[in-house]
Amino acid sequence: MKEALINVERKLSSHTVSPYLFGHFIEDIDDHMTAMLAYPVRNMDFEEEDTNQDGVSGSWFPIHDGKHTQYAIEPAARGHSGHSQKIRIWNKDRGMSGIGQHIQIEGGLHTLRLYARATNEIHHVLVRIVDQLNGMVLSETQLEITEHRWKELECEISVSYATSTAELQIWAVPRPSQEWEDSVSTGMIWFDHISLLPYQASQTTGLLKRDVYHMAKDLNSGIMRLGGNYISLYHWEDFVGPTYLRPNYINEAWEQAGHVHKYFGTNEFIALCKQLGVEPQICVNMGTGTPEEAADWVEYCNGDLATTMGALRGSHGFPEPYGVKYWEVGNEMYGPWQAGVCTAEHYADMYVLYARAMKAKDASIQLLGCGTARDSLVPGWNQKVLTRAGKEMDFFTLHIYQGQNFFPIDARTPSETRFKAITAFPELARSLFGEVESLIRSSDELAHLKIAVTEWNTMYFPNPDLPNNNTLEAAVANACMMNEMMRQSHLVHIANFSDLVNGWVGGCIRVGDAYERMKKPGWSGKNHLIFGTATYHLLRLYANCQIDRLVEVEVDCSTYNAGPSKLDLYLKQLPELDVVAGVSAKLDKLTLFIVNRSLKEMPVSCHLTAWEPKAEVRVSVISGSDYEAFNTVFEPNTLQARVEHTLLMGATWQSTLQPHAIYVMEVELQTFE
After folding, report:
1. Binning pLDDT at 50, 70 and 90, where does residue 673 land?
2. Which of 417, 392, 382 is nearest to 403 (CA)?
3. pLDDT digit string (tens) for 18-31?
4. Distance CA 402, CA 392 (A)
5. CA neighbor of 660 nearest in space, from 602, 594, 596
């Protein structure tokens, strides 16, 4: 094997690397919200139908002592939506009856909330949490029911320990039988909301599960996007204010996707961003929305209390403006899968209306217009949109999912052929960026524009049901993409990895066993386990390096051919090493990002003479014996970054790189005057 040579030059880039390249993405898709959020109870507002004809909504089930208890779904409480759950205890039994749900729950203090009403025969509600494995009662409390009218009940409960095998039981406990009245409306109780929330989730972890929050925090994200297909059917004003009053929406963006999670709206998103220390980025609804609706959203977030929407935000308990700077106008409006799909001309004309309405509310905001990386879907989209509306944009967006979208690969493709195609991510992206840059540079009116890659990841096959996106191979490809976006950082300022948690198979934080979509969640018995994919560890590693400016590097190594793409592009003689280097703002630390795209070991010599490095080198490595390996609930730590410390030989680092591996080399520098 030929030894690879890397020379790190002294020349610095004239621009800095934006921290927003290390961004992430929250989307209400599949189980993204339920996996991410700390609420252990599903179907909290009984919005789901009675699918098994037992009279009980969705994931709840009946529990009772008697033989004649009746259950029914009825209209919701006044001001609420969805359904209410009715339980009727008949005179013949006069025993306890209720509803239950299997949950996984954290130990410690929780807030319990009920919205209920009952007839006089119901004395109180008994809330019990039981470990199904051993029958141990983890928590028990009772709440007095005194109203036939709807009333909110709230208290704090303590749960003995965390378990994924808990059963939440909500019992209606009747008065003694002699106190019952013999009338039609006897022994009845209705629930319209039942929820539990760990106390810490509402105080310190932005409503997220504790481990999810800390893993998200460790990603050191610069920016967090709220968007995706569902946003084209999302009306923001329905998801602010008291959660009881928010409607229950079917998630219309995907079949059988359940309901939009109404407990994570604008205020909750902003609160999470503040707790994570990231910049919020919001995509507005162009599919079924209006310019006025989008402008009101801007005013709700950024207006002071003297404005109509700012006053509304204040009435919800948030008097200080949020100052949301980055607003994306429409999500993938070129796509036939998108609600409101339109032509480039229609999008451009509508964009101008949106932009002017939104900037009239806050002239300081930055607007992101919708571009496409797949011109074959809508030939000429980017040119048409930029010509008609580009001068009123601040960013032009691309969504880049490397894999089957751009290469003739599928599940039957030989693995080595697929590996070469998927790891050609930087060359493919470079071509796409170059096409957009040529359009931008063609007109003085567009010269100010930057690129935002507001969704990116590998996507092997359509509607993926296999965990390819979680493999070491995917992490190697994604590392190459990060390298390329750093190389293009004069132009690319924002990038949002898709997704943050579960959702489709690409989420970098995994909760439970949903990485295999063909199997029912919970099949492993470890649905409580939270872990990172190989790409999670890559993104965490990259984002926590101190990179301010790029440093020029020269690489001499073997090459390979990636084969034909679906673009007018044949990727051949690609370097097997993908390398980028950067230096900290104080010029006291040099970092090299080295990806071995070869399937073999590769000896390497890296010369750092131009930078007068100190002797000790820290090297973080993500590697494995099989590029198709991935972390699972059974082996969650198979792939992660390991740290090695070594010494330079003079100003040279020598090593043998593992195949299909990611290296981040950090070395402190002598201080220059």
Report:
1. very low
2. 417
3. 999 999 999 999 88
4. 29
5. 596
pLDDT tens for each residue of 574-595 = 999 999 999 999 999 999 999 9
SS3 610: helix
| Mean pLDDT estimate for the chain | 94
Q: How many residues does the chain have?
A: 673
What backbone phi and psi angles, to 5 degrees, belong to 300?
-60, -40
Residues 6+ away with beta carbon under 8 Å from 53? none
pLDDT at position 79: 85
Helix (H, G, I), strand (E, B) or coil at 231: helix
Q: How many CB atoms lie within 10 A of CB 518?
A: 7
Q: Is the full-model pTM beyond 0.85?
A: yes
Residue 385 to residue 396: CA distance in whole angstroms = 10
Query: Buried b vs exposed e over 116-130: b needs ≥16 C-beta within 10 Å?
Result: bbbbbbbbbbbbbbb
518-to-27, 252, 465 alpha-carbon distances in Å: 21, 21, 6
Q: For residue 513, which of 535, 539, 531 has the smallest C-alpha distance?
A: 531
Provide the β-strand partners of residue 602.
657
According to DSSP, the β-strands at 279-284 and 326-329 are parallel
389 CB-near residues (< 8 Å, 6+ apart): 347, 348, 349, 351, 352, 355, 369
The residue written with tokens 């990727």 in the block is 571
| Cβ atoms 117, 189 nearer than 8 A | yes
3-state SS, residue 301: helix
The closest alpha carbon to 467, from 625, 630, 627, belongs to 630
Query: Tokens for 367?
Result: 């607007």
Nearest partner of 449 among 436, 435, 462, judged by Cα = 436
CA proximity to 201, closest of 258, 116, 263, 141: 263
In 3D, which of 335, 212, 207, 339 has the Cα closest to residue 265? 207
**Rounded distance between C-alpha atoms, residue 170 and residue 115, angstroms:** 12
pLDDT at 178: 77
Mean of pLDDT values over 345-371: 98
- Report yes or no: 102 and 130 within 8 Å, Cβ to Cβ: no
Gap between the Cα atoms of 664 and 581, Å rounded: 10
SS3 content of the chain, % helix, strand, coil (to 5): 25, 35, 40
CA distance 385 to 347: 7
* Coil, helix or strand at residue 331: coil
Cβ distance 164 to 104 under 8 Å? yes
Going by C-alpha positions, the residue among 375, 507, 403, 421 that lies closest to residue 462 is 403
CA–CA separation, 243 and 227 (whole Å): 20
Cα 372 → chain centroid: 21
Look at residue 518 and tell me whether its pLDDT is greater than 70. Answer: no
Residues linked to residue 191 through DSSP beta bridges, in sequence order: 85, 116
Distance CA(612)–CA(632), nearest Å, equals 43
Q: How many Cβ atoms from other residues are within 10 Å of residue 78's Cβ? A: 8
In 51-181, where do the E strands start and end?
61-64, 70-75, 83-88, 97-105, 108-118, 122-131, 137-144, 151-159, 163-174
Whether the Cβ atoms of residue 319 and residue 298 lie closer than 8 Å to each other: no
SS (H, E, C) 572-597: CCEECEEEEEEECCCCCEEEEEEEEC
| β-bridge partners, 496 | 23
% of the chain with per-residue pLDDT over 90: 83
Tens digit of each residue's pLDDT (9 = 90 or more) over 552-571: 999 999 999 998 889 888 89
The amino acid present at 260, given as its one-letter code, is V
**Count of other CB atoms within 10 angstroms of residue 632:** 19
**For residues 494 and 18, is the Cβ–Cβ distance under 8 A?**
yes
The gap from C-alpha 52 to its chain's centroid, in whole angstroms, comes to 32
